[in-house]
Write a structure and sequence with these properties.
By secondary structure, the chain is mainly alpha-helical. Helix content is 91%, strand content 0%. The model has no long low-confidence stretch (mean pLDDT 79).
């Protein structure tokens, strides 16, 4: 249990004790019983009130911080909320002015045509990619490359042979 709850229980118990102390004081004539029990009840009441004041202050600070945070959050909303309402109103007006069957049908047809064209273009691109890959492979494997390599090796061999020949002086 929390400290506040214990203080409340002790306060109520001391109030009951004060009532009992007053009854004993009346019957016995001794005021001390009543004074002690009333003093204890007042002391616990004071402690309980101090604890409540502290918690009340913390609660007020938390509420103030929450209000500040809420105001900080609400501020941007105040900027865009009127614009959003205007946009919604404009869209409603446009939707009401539009006869859905008359004006939307051409748009739907146009969108279907565009979608069909897009699919055709995608197929064409796929075919062109395949052709490019085939041509690239053919280019890499063309017979001229072997001939060029053979000629290169012959040229190198001839150059070496020429370099080894004795030079004639003119």
């Amino acid at each position: 249990m929390s400290k506040l709850r214990w203080l409340e229980i002790a306060e109520y118990a001391s109030l009951s004790g004060a009532v009992a102390g007053i009854a004993i004081a009346v019957l016995s004539g001794e005021i001390v019983y009543a004074a002690i029990s009333i003093f204890l009840a007042l002391l616990l009441n004071l402690a309980n009130r101090q604890q409540l004041k502290r918690e009340y202050g913390e609660l007020r600070r938390a509420i103030a911080l929450t209000r500040q945070e809420l105001a900080r959050i609400e501020e941007p909303r105040n900027d865009w909320e009127p614009e959003l309402k205007n946009l919604i109103d404009r869209l409603h007006r446009e939707a009401e002015s539009m006869n859905s069957g008359e004006k939307l049908e051409p748009l739907v047809v146009a969108m279907k045509q565009q979608r069909s064209r897009q699919q055709d273009l995608e197929q064409l691109v796929t075919l062109l990619k395949a052709q490019i890959e085939t041509l690239t492979e053919q280019f890499k494997n063309r017979p001229e490359l072997e001939q060029i390599e053979t000629l290169t090796s012959v040229i190198v061999a001839l150059k070496q042979f020429i370099d080894e020949l004795p030079r004639q002086e003119e």
